Structures are given as structure tokens and as C-alpha cells.
Amino acid sequence: MEEDKLQEKEFFSWEEFSAFFDAWCERRKVLFFVKNSVPLSKCKWATAPPRPDVVEALKYSSVRLVCKDFRGSSKPEQGGQHKGCCASIVLKMSPKKDRLIVTECQLAHNHALCPIEFAYYFKKGYLMANSCLPVRTTNKISKQFVGGPDVRRLLSYCKSRDHGVLDVLTVLDGLFASDPNAKVKLVFMEDKVIVQTIFFLSSRMMALSRRFPLMLFFDRMVGLNEEFDLYSVLCVDGAGRGREVAYCLTQRETPDLLRFTLASLVQSVPEVKLQVRCITLGVEIAHLEAVKELLPNARVQICRSQVLETLFSKAQELGAAEDERIWPLLCRLAAAKSPAAYQQAAQEMKVILPQRFVRYFQRHWQPRSEMWVQFWAFETARNVNACELLKQHQRRLLAALSPSPTVAQCMLDLLAMQVGSEAHELDEGELATHYRAICKPEPAGLIEEELGFARHGRYRFQETAEGYLLHDGLSKFAMDQALTRCSCSIYTSSLLPCRHLFATRLRTGLALFDPGLLHRNQAALLGAC
Ligand SMILES: [Zn+2]
Ligand SMILES: [Zn+2]
């Protein structure tokens, strides 16, 4: 008898049971689902509770699985209603609290078993996946933006720490607690409670992308982890620094991340869609056609130094001889300042590089030359060096991230990096020198003093319709959108930039040295009479 074989069968983990039961159902073409369950993590204990590793392994103190047809079918069948099926299995934790035991099983069905129906509905691994969060919930929420209440609801459903989902949700809960307007999109693997991708940006990052949308950068971080990848979108702030405006953490080899990330960014900050003029991509980013659709006014460039490195290593791989001329030639190619110079370098390639390499070049890089050769792909305004900016970002990430972190830890590190980043980059001495170069000594001294107060831990910022509000713990000060005027007495009496303007500029990414800040006080400038 089948019942005899199952009855009293023991399992030392829910995973073991799930694997056994999947195979058992597959052999018999029967469909069962969990009707009720009591998660161990939610149990109260009169006696000593089971050890944490047992809670983790067994997951439930009891589970009742019933046949898919247990409600019966409402279709009239040969004159009568088809009654619900009684086939069921009950699994309970043993009194010793160390294993799950089948305590009841009723395997007779009151209906025929249909292999076609089975093939349609059966999902291997479903029992295991459902033990952390209900799969229907994760399927429903997947690919959508989630808010604080969604995250708290998911947390209340969460029954175990499987796959780090609980940890990720806890980090998101913290993010929403401190920044309710943050944007987060979660993608779960279909029918599994495994986070595949997380897209997120804080309201501060949103403000940066609104203020500096002209040039964006998109690249993957190299060497983060075996399991997942980190992609970042950067903009260039008023001081010419690369600043993060969105992050995307994803399981390795997830396809088409460029499209997903840009689409999510445009959904979060719709006004950037038409404002982006240029986007520079890392060399390995694929499916560039997504840019045209999502950022219709943006020119696409590929990071030139990365292209160069790729070409050089590909040349070795395809059998180029040790030849000192190769690197300088490739550099001339990439840095060509006219189509003729480019053509000439491309011709020379045929002489000193193997045929196979030339074919590779013609197939992959020649058609995209407008995206990476200097003549066509020049950096736009403000002398931004895209390659240097991407490299600096890589270095910043390497310094900020824990070695091979989990997804949750990585998010924590990235969020912490946002908070500390601009204060690090404030070089008061250098800024004071710039102001002394254009100002008379007395106003330059005042400005220097105010710069010293820019990095103040107690400031709180708020965006308003007119500009910004800053609370310093005692009073509030109002500033205009362009951050050139402040309502405080320091500014109104001197018409020189005050600590509030500097602090808010620092936070929003505007340059702290800006001659525009002195327009209303020409008398402070050197050479004024
Ligand atoms: Zn049945
Ligand atoms: Zn002020």
C-alpha cells in the first residue's frame, strides 16, 4: 500500500521533503498544494524552543497538503456535482523537535488523474519556494515599484531567511523609514522567492538626476561577486564629479539590464527622458538600441579607454605578434581627430595585425566607430573625461563595498556611501584659494569662514516649490532654486555666499566655487572700484 510507505516517513528538512514530494507527485501525476501550515518561526513555545538551525531547516511545525480538487468541481458531471477530493497528507514536527514526520495520509482520489492537467499545473520547486514567501505575492509584485507599505507587508508574510530575501526586505524597510520617497523596483524569479534584480534610487539621487540630466554614464562594476552584478547610472554634478543617480543589483547574466535600468530611471524621474543629451556606456553593455527608445535625444558613446583595452587584449588573443607598434596604433585609431586620420590608422592595422583580428574589428568596432572614436564621440561640455569618471567611480565602489557582500550588505554599503560621499570631497582649502583669487581679502575671509560651516551634521534639507529650506536645529532658512540667495542675516547683510548655500550646494551637487555667487556683490571682487 502506498499509504504504508508514506506514513511515518521522516524528513530532516523541508528541503528534503520538498524534493521527495516533487518526485513523488511527478511519478503519480497528482497535484497537491499547502492548505494550512504553521511556520516554526511564528510558534510560541511552552517548553524549550527548537534550535535556530532546526527552525531554519524544518520551517514548519505542521503542514497539511490537500489534492488540487479538494474543493470539488462546480461542473455538473453526469447529473450531479462533483464532490471535493479527500486525498491529503499531514506532516508534523516530531516530539523531539528534530524532524518532520508524515502523521496522516489519505491517498485515494475520487476522480481520475489527468497527465495533461498535471503537466500544465505542476511546478517543481514550488513547495520549497513558497516556504519563504507566498509565490503568488512575489509573482504579483515583481517588476513593479514597491513602497514602504509593500515592503512591510512582504516582511509580515516572510517565514524564513531563505535566499536572503528577508535581509533585503529589512534593508528596504530601513531605506523607506529614512527616505519614504525612495524608488525601488523588485524583480523576483518567476515562481521562486529569489530576488533577481533590485533597482533603487534615493530621493537625493532623484534630485541629482533632475538637476544634472545632460550626460549620463552606465557601467557594470567589475569583480564584485560570483553571484550578482552591480550596475550604476551616474551623472556629472556642477563640480564635474560623477555622482550616482541609480543602482541596479542583479543576478549574474541577467539580460538586457540597460533597457531595464533606463526604463526604471525614466519611470522614476520622467523629466529626464528628453533632457539626456549623451550617455556613455561601459564596453560590455549590450542592446544599445534601448537608448534610442528610452532617451530619444541622447547620443550613445562607448567608454574609449575600455574599447582600447578590449581591442588590445583581443589582438593578443587572436595571435598578434609581440609588436611595440600595436598599442600606439590602436591609440591613434581611438583618438583620431578626423575621418581621414581614422581611415589611415585602420589601413595600417591591416599591415601589422593578423587578418583574424582585422575581421573581428571590422565586424564589431568599425560599424560603431561613431560611438568611440574621438572625432565623433567627443565628450560634451565641461571637459568631462568619461573614462576617468567611470574609473573613479569603480575605485569609490571598491573602497565602499565589503568584500564579496550579500545583496543586502551591498545595498547597505551603497546607501552609506551616498551619505558620506560629498562631505569627503569637500576641500575647503582649495575652494578658499579659488575665492581669494577673485575676491578682495576681507570678503574672501568671510567666505572662507562660512565654508568651514558647510559640513554640518545637524542640517536638514527640504525641497520646496521656490527652492530649498534648510533647518539648522534652531531656525529655517529659505534659498532660491539656483542656490545663489539665502534668507539668513549673513547673506542679506553681506550679499556673500553663506554656510547654508554652501551646505545645500554640497548636498545637491552644485559647485561650491561659483563666481555667480558674487553677482550681487560686485564690490567684493578684485579689480572692482
Ligand atoms: Zn484528488
Ligand atoms: Zn544663509
From TrEMBL:
Keywords annotated in UniProt: Metal-binding, Zinc, Zinc-finger
Coiled coil: none
Keyword Nucleotidyltransferase annotated: no
Molecular function terms, GO-annotated: zinc ion binding
Tree of life domain: Eukaryota
Domain SWIM-type, chain residue ranges per copy: 477-509
Stored InterPro entries: DUF5575_C, DUF5575_N, Znf_SWIM, ZSWIM9, ZSWIM9_RNaseH-like
Cited PANTHER family: BTB DOMAIN-CONTAINING PROTEIN, ZINC FINGER SWIM-TYPE CONTAINING 9
Name listed for the protein in its UniProt record: Zinc finger SWIM-type containing 9
The encoding gene: ZSWIM9
